Amino acid sequence: MPAPELPGVVSAEALVQTGKAIASVQLPSGEIPWFPGGHTDPWDHVECAMALTVVGQVAEAERAYEWLRTTQGADGSWPLQVRDGVVEDAGADTNYCAYPAVGVWHHVLITGDEEFAERMWPMVRDAIDFVLTAQHQRGEIDWGIGEAGPTGEALLAGSSSIHQSLRCALALADRVGEQQPSWEVAVGRLGHALRRHPEAFTPKTRYSMDWYYPILGGAVRGEAGRRRIDERWNDFVVDGLGIRCVDDNPWVTGAETCELVLALDALGEHDRAVAQLAAMQHLRDPDGSYWTGYVFADDKRWPEEQSSWTAAAVVLAADALTRTSLGNGIFRGEGLPQGLPVENASCCEYEHTR
User: Fold this and answer.
1) What GO biological process terms does the UniProt entry carry, in alphabetical order (predicted)?
2) What 3-state DSSP class applies to 109?
3) Where are the domains of the chain?
4) In 3D, which of 170, 269, 154 has the Cα closest to residue 216?
5) For residue 148, what is the DSSP state?
6) Is-contact 43 99, C-beta < 8 A?
7) Which fold has domain 12-334?
8) 89-114 tens-digit pLDDT
């Protein structure tokens, strides 16, 4: 399959090299850490697997998904952090546990592999069922689940990402003929909370992710999404460099910039999206990898690491903008079910999921 190419920004050859840089970090088990010797979390692991599929490294991507399938806990979760197979943080993040649904659906879209869909379906089903034990009546989903149960704290960016994961899980369920009506209700309630109940989420307004993730996750689109982007554009965007991770630090980060690219693409803001992908290319290393961030006040790259997930975000952003792979529309929500609409109903009408 051809790799994406965006003339004047990044070539197909360069993105194939980036895919090889990601694959070079992968362990024999299939685990993809942040960098050689670094730790692994499920979300960033999936992001890397998605990028590998886009650039044609399908076998490596499938090894990554197989690692998820064989390391999943009996309750459907994965630990927050492992290093070369050793658990370093046994807690469970609901966003992390939901995200494999996005990766699996993306892989099925690109490869058309029905056997892969069937093999991965139980993993996705159990993960989503686990995540939804943390959903509140209003719709928001707590960010973590520990031994004592859900944390009681929902985060806007995390719940926004889960919104996309639920929609991908529903698409996969339909593909394998396993309808999940309770998930349709859950994604409708979650979208309602994201659009109408900002008070449900712990404020993290310093972080750029809270700015663009409701758009990236598919809950907010159209004119409302464009207004949201315009309101804080000057707080986060640094001309020619990308976007700040937090609004009060002189630090731009590549992955957040590429996620903004995906959000802008979902709004039809193609020119602004291309400009941001071009702006962050200063983080590219000659070996095809990408540095995580840059402190422009000090003219220093920081942290001093080339993160696999930053490289992955570049590949996915380029694919979305160029409409190259069969999975290029996943962040635009193309073909994804919406869930049951609840905008005009009382939140109290919906059964508590706990």
Assistant:
1) carbohydrate metabolic process
2) helix
3) 12-334
4) 269
5) T
6) yes
7) Glycosyltransferase (1.50.10)
8) 999 999 999 999 999 999 999 999 99
